[in-house]
Amino acid sequence: MVKLKIAMSHPMREQLISIVRNLKDFEIEKDSIRKIQKNKKEWKKAKTFESFESHLNWKNNSNLITIIQRKIGLINIKKYNSDSAEIILANNAFLISNKPYITYLEKAPAIFGYTSKVYNSPIGKILLINRLKDKKLLLILFRTKTAMKGFIETFKKNKKIKKLLKQKAIYYYPPLEIKKKITLERFKNPKEVIFFFNSSSFILKGGYQLVRAFEKLEKEYSNVKLVLLTKKSTIDSESFKKISKNKKISFYEPNYTQEEVILNFYLKSHIFIYPTYSDSFSMAINEAIQTNMPIITSDFFSIPERIIDRQTGFLFKSPYKNYDKNFVIKNEHFGDYPGILKEIYYDSKYNKLKHVEEFLYEKMKFFTKNPYKIYTFAKKVNEFSKKELNYKQQKERINKIIMDSYKKYQKGTK
Fold first, then answer.
1. Are residues 262 and 329 in the same domain?
2. Which of 23, 137, 291, 346 is the most buried (most CB within 10 A)?
3. Domain of 93?
4. Same structural domain, 48 and 71
5. Residue 169 in 3-state DSSP?
6. Would residue 113 be called left, alpha or beta, if left means φ above 0 and alpha means ψ between -120 and 50 degrees?
7. What Å distances lie between residue 229 and 46, 187, 226, 273, CA to CA?
């Protein structure tokens, strides 16, 4: 059987590409693969900061179109045609296209240029209804249940939008293809407990609180180690010098492939510690789950749907929540990325996040003092991983969903 081709309208998103990779009935078109390789380098370069100061003072320079979009509530609409593909996969945008398409939406503000101020925009709602009615829109894909629920709840007062969203919205956890067999052996009473942190932003993901909590822990226990995989440019020089001198802390720049990170870091550690203050999804958490690691993190946004507090990890209440009880985002951190970075940094500097440090210390101490508990938690993580992140099963599921929606579209056009 000849596979149907999928084109990428936004080929720089590696996590997005992984959704349609290795499907039974579909393959990524060659032109998109070339763009993916090119944009990988450009994306990496764009996300590199020369110094801590450039990271902290980075400005999200919006162009005129984005500024207008945020003022009046225009949604992201992109024109994209393909002569070689049967289906197009888009990212945080609706398409005007010659082919049917699927769009991945991170959360509600993403389609309004990352601002939540225009949810009630009359123009925005008219455009949204128009795009949702488009028969060429096969599916709206979310990576978590929380993001899907929050999007629907955002427009729940508009019956047309809510009905159309429910017809086309699905969620899908993108699983990793790990070729090495993953076992639970390393969790059985380890002599040295290794905590692992993985993020490109030390500030945003709670790195300062983690290091302080670990410094307190290592004074009481000699059989502990902390591994940091993060960017030096996201840590101030004074703190980095202190980290470098600590023999119990190993620091690495994130210059590894995902497979290398799995093999050389996750599979050589016991506890994934990730005190994040802002996340819509976090692939790092999925990586930890698929390598059976108990996780210490926050309850920000979608995280609690993948981590059961006190069974597969420990959750603390995030002090920077920007959404209500129905996961409707009230103010968008990403739209003011420098602002939230500075807030967290200065809160860290002036010790306003002491409660987070204490939580991390207590939970790291729990696993260090009771190493047999690591195995108990890891077994529960393994159960969740097999159920929700099984690579073969999830690939079969998304393949069927896409194929069914494509067949329905074909039937409707005859």
1. yes
2. 291
3. 4-175+391-413
4. yes
5. strand
6. left
7. 19, 21, 10, 11
Q: How many domains does the chain have?
A: 2
* Residue 51 pLDDT class (50, 70, 90 cuts): confident
Specify whether 384 is located in the same domain as 396: no
Residue 299 belongs to domain with CATH number: 3.40.50.2000
163 with 193, same domain? no
3-state secondary structure 323-377: ECCCCCECCCHHHHHHHHHHHHHHHHHCCCCHHHHHHHHHHHHHHHHCCHHHHHH
Tokens of 5: 């081709």
Q: Which of 153, 243, 172, 247 is nearest to 21 (CA)?
A: 172
Residue 180 placed within a domain: no
Same domain, yes or no: 155 and 219: no
pLDDT at 335: 46
Dmax over CA atoms of the chain, in Å, equals 72
Q: Global pTM?
A: 0.93
218 and 100 in a single domain? The answer is: no
Comparing 107 with 113, which gets the higher pLDDT?
A: 107
Question: Residue with structure tokens 């006190």?
Answer: 310
H or E stretch covering 54 = helix 52-56
126 shares its domain with 266: no
The answer for residues whose C-beta is within 8 angstroms of residue 314's C-beta and 6 or more apart is 295, 296, 297, 359, 363, 366
Write down the residue that tokens 């809510």 correspond to.
162
Q: What is d(CA 32, CA 147) in angstroms, rounded to the nearest whole number? A: 27
- H helix intervals, 171-246: 207-220, 237-245
- pLDDT of 12 over the 80 cut: no
Shared domain check, 400 and 312: no
> What is the reported pLDDT for 291?
97
Mean pLDDT (whole number) for 359-365? 98
Degrees to nearest 5, angle at CA 16 with 12 and 17: 75
